[in-house]
Amino acid sequence: MRKTFQKWLLIFVASAFFLTLCLSFYLQTREAKSNSIDLIDLKLDDAVKQIKLNTRNVEAIRIMTESEALAKARALAEIILSNPEVLKEKGWPGRMEKILDVDEVHIINKDGIIIASSSATGYDMASNAQSREFLKGLGDPDFEFVQGAQPRGMDQEIFQYTGVSRLDETGIVQIGYYPTRLANAMSLADIENLADGFRIGNHGSILITKSGKIVSSINDKLLGMRMDSFGIQSGTLNKKEPFYATIEEKKYLCKPKIFSPYVLIGILPIDEMYVSRNEMVRSLVFSNTILFSIVFLLVSFLVDRVVISGIFHVNRSLEKITEGNLNERVDVRSNPEFVSLSNGINTTVSALKDAITEAAARIDKELEFAREIQLSSLPTVFPPYPDRTEFDIFAAIFTAKEVGGDFYDFFMIDEDHLAVVIADVSGKGIPASLFMMTSKTMIQNLAESGRSPAEVFMDANRHLCENNEAEMFVTAFMGILEISTGKYTFVNAGHNKPLIRQSVNGYDWIQTKPGFVLAGINTTLYKQAEIILKPGDLLFFYTDGITEANDPSGAFFGNEHLKAFLNSPEAIDAGPDQLIHLMKKEIDSFVKDAPQADDITMLALRYKGS
Amino acid sequence: MEIQELKEGSKLTIALSGRLDTITAPDLENKLNSSLNAVEELVFDFKELGYLSSAGLRVLLSAQKRMNKQGSLVIHGVNETIMEIFEATGFTDILKIE
Question: In the CATH scheme, what is the code of domain A377-607?
Answer without folding.
Answer: 3.60.40.10
